[in-house]
Amino acid sequence: MPKRVKLCGQEEFEEVRVKEPIVTDLGPKAIGPYSQAVRANGFVFVSGQIALDPRTQELVPGDITAQTERVLENLRAILQAAGSSLEKIVRTTVFLADMSDFASMNQVYARYFRQDFPARSTVQAARLPRDVRVEIDAIAIA
């Protein structure tokens, strides 16, 4: 239910909170109790994506380059279903199984983000779902 809030002594207004799960066949199905993405209050929060082919739900074959391409295509598809795009991403988190893959991942990443780069953290994880090499989540403007 909306509530009345007052900001910095200004006029009161109704705060509206909206939370909508995003589901699309263009991205891999969630493999657990979570949404592919959630649109809330002008933002889209995309769950971590791994290199699953949305048509088969199987991992794409190949190295870190192939996996990163698939992950970013999955992000693109889910964002489009949410009415957003890669260009509207404000933050990503990249999880790598091995930090020695950073340069190769970064080359692919740079092809998808050419200007007004999102903020980003990159971390090495002890283990990722299905033993993939890379997982990326994102926050974008709706």
Q: Could you describe the 3D structure shown?
A:
Helix 1 packs parallel to helix 2. The chain is of the alpha+beta class. It contains two helices and eight strands.
Write a concise synopsis of the structure shown:
This protein is of the alpha+beta class and about 140 residues long. The protein has helices spanning about 65-80, 100-110; strands at about 5, 15, 20, 35-40, 45-50, 90-95, 120-125, 135-140.
Distance between the termini: 22 Å
Q: Give the biggest sheet.
A: 6 strands, mixed
Alpha plus pi helix count:
2
Broad structural category? alpha+beta
| Bulk shape | globular
Question: What secondary-structure arrangement, pairings included, does this model have?
Answer:
Layout: E1 3-5, E2 13-15, E3 19-22, E4 37-40, E5 43-49, H1 64-81, E6 89-96, H2 102-112, E7 119-124, E8 134-141
Parallel strand pairs: 6-7
Antiparallel strand pairs: 1-2, 3-4, 4-5, 5-8, 6-8
Helix pairs in contact: 1-2
What keywords describe this structure?
142 residues; 2 helices; two-stranded antiparallel sheet; six-stranded mixed sheet; alpha+beta; single chain
